Amino acid sequence: MSNTLKRISVIGLSLVMVSGVVVLPAAGQASLQDQIASLLAQIQALQAQLQTPTTSTTFTSDLTVGSTGNDVKALQQFLNANGSPVSTVAGAPGHVGHETTTFGPLTKAALAKYQASVGISPAVGYFGPITRAKVNSLAVVTPVTPVTPVTPVTPPVVATEGSFTATLAAVPSANPNASAGDNKSVIGVEVQAQGSAIIINRADWQISVTNVGAGTTYNPTSFIKKIRVWDGSTELGSVVLDSTNLNLDSSSRYWIRLSGFSFNVAKDAKKVLTFSIDTVTTIDNNRVVIFQDYAGGTNSLRGVDAQGTASYADLAAADSRQHTFKSGGASVLTLSTDTNNPLARNVFLDGTSGTTRTELLRFTAKSTEGASVLRTLAVSSTYTSVQPSILALYDGDTVLASASTANHTVFTNIELNIPQDTTKTLTIAANFPSTGNGMVASVSVPAAAGNSSYRKADGSTGTPTAASAMNGNDVYARRTAAILTFVSASNTYKAGTTGVGAVSSSMDGILIFKVKAMGGTLTLPTSGAVLIGVASDGTATIAATAVAVSVNDTQNIPDGAERTITITANRLATGTGSAAFQRFNLEAFYSNFGAAIAANVYLQNYGLGDFKTPSVILP
């Protein structure tokens, strides 16, 4: 019999069972209570022995009487759990569940008992390296059971019943100048889903096509090749229009039912469903195309809600889109002066080679209502001194045609194809001969240029349209030239001195531009080489004598070099009490290549429109 069983048997001998009830003997009751308490403590110790001795604390220091801390408490817990209780008195300090952080005599005695039980010598109750190693060897790590994440249960989506409304979309709008071709938008429907997401999957359209010249309604298949369905830029489907799907009812209305597409609209959202057509590109007369709800029936649009239930809607009876598709013979070629047309300016004339491709005019040619082919272009030119040696018409870097520099000339055999709704930017340039100096030349294209022509898509010929004459600005070709390039400008208002009045207020302007000397050394530009004017309210020019001017540069500009020039200008207020917006302008620049400035040999008072400061209010 084991020690454990023997101890339990002793307890049984001290108890008398009568009718299933434990009865205490009459004599020796107090001493028996002490025995019971002792026996209960032994039972707890025996229960601890039945457990696997473990500790969850790793000890790192020696402990003895007087030591304190959590290590002491952990040691008492270990002793209580391993058959060497610190106290056997229930509820007393050191008893199971009442461990303390103080190492006292009871802890020492319990430790000595444990040391003896495991063969540690000397068993004196000192917790040193040998005992610490033994206890730490019994340490175990309580395994952490991983928690299996619970997959959230998504509540089932309950399909709801829905419906939709349909209205005529603003885009595409009616187009009186539509062009034939592929993917031409003809009608849009704004769909709003209500109560559920909606899928539109069917549409009935009534279509009419009229030949304007003949005044006859045609079978739509004679003009429309295909109908496409769009969700924004995504094509949902298409159908080739032919006799198998185009219907003619008893009222001579042509209509078609489109199905098999899926146009998705989220719950309570709005989207536009768009329809476009591909057409033939060669027609004798304009065609008027009308798309509308099929008037011979109802429920022109069908949608399906989240429950799979179909619902229907119609556009208003008056809702339709009409487009006039122009025939190829109606193409229009329009000429306009380009916004980047060169300003009047100086160019350097090389004494050996002259100049090549000096741009005189930049303009645009736009074809609408069909493609055009520019064939001829009439040009007027003016010049002084020696005329340019040749004029040429360019499309980018490609020479389209060249001509002599007579006062009136015509570029022929141009043959420039300009697709419908495309704009071409063209330039006219000149070559100046080396024999001249101080030549001035310009060109223009008259508004009514009877000798200009273009070919339309149908092969007929027309005259380009121009709202006004396209005029190039003068170009000055010189053997010695100052080339000016605007950089920046500023203007600052300074209030008058207190007590002096408005007459003491002023504006200070700064003009910055680059000057490149070509053909010789440019004498240092001074204040006498520039003429600064003041413009009031953008129109009136105030005398330059009212302006104080200074120039920053102190050196001449060698041939081929470029220098940045800064001009500062100051002007006092008039003191009249009549405030006005005012600014500084560069009115003229004198280029001195050896001649006296006063001679005005190289006066430039042209092409300076950008050389100005912002305006400020000056009294």
How does this model look, in words?
- With 619 residues, the chain is mostly beta strands.
- The chain folds into 4 domains: 3-137, Muramoyl-pentapeptide Carboxypeptidase, domain 1; 163-326, Sandwich (Immunoglobulin-like); 332-478, Jelly Rolls, CATH 2.60.120; 482-618, Immunoglobulin-like (Sandwich).
- 11% of the residues lie in helices and 42% in strands.
- The protein is built from 5 helices and 40 strands.
- The strands form 7 sheets. Strands 4, 6, 7, 10, 11, 13, 14, 15 and 16 form a 9-stranded mixed beta sheet that branches. Strands 18, 20, 23, 24, 26, 27, 28, 30 and 31 form a 9-stranded mixed beta sheet that branches.
- Strand 27 (453-456) and strand 28 (461-462) form a beta hairpin.
- The radius of gyration is 52 Å and the shape is flat.
- The N and C termini lie far apart (124 Å).
- Mean pLDDT is 81; it is low at 1-30, 48-54, 141-147, 538-545 and 596-600.
